[in-house]
Design goal:
The chain is mainly beta. It has no helices and ten strands.
Length: about 120
């Protein structure tokens, strides 16, 4: 069973940059794709942020975030990253990473506990 743990969140000001991380543990970690999602204050549904194919590295972004957020990975360390630039108050959310295990499984799962990102002046 794969466990994912997010880290690196914090309190930042508008316009700042922040990089959050996700570390995978457990046996046989070789997902098809890894992704970042977020849940804003007062919301229940996870919002898709970005994803990356684990082998090959193809990147995908939510249209509204393209150009400000950059997803990357380190396969050897089993780590996923999200670099967030020019942060805005509306980026305030709990950020989660999840894995899409295989191409046949059309959903992300195994989300961690999340890391809080708060953008405020």
């Amino acid at each position: 069973q794969v466990q994912l743990r997010e880290s690196g969140g914090g309190l930042v000001q508008p316009g700042d940059s922040l990089t959050i991380s996700c570390t995978a543990s457990g046996d046989s970690f070789s997902p098809f794709r890894m992704g970042w999602f977020r849940v804003g204050p007062g919301k229940e549904e996870r919002e898709y942020v970005a994803s990356i194919t684990w082998i090959g590295g193809s990147r995908y972004y939510a249209d509204s975030l393209k150009g400000r957020f950059i997803i990357s990975k380190d396969n050897a360390k089993r780590m996923l990253f999200l670099q967030m630039n020019n942060l805005k108050p509306e980026d305030t959310a709990v950020y989660y990473c999840g894995q899409r295990p295989t191409v046949e499984v059309n959903e992300f799962k195994n989300f961690g506990q999340g890391t809080q990102v708060t953008v405020t002046s």
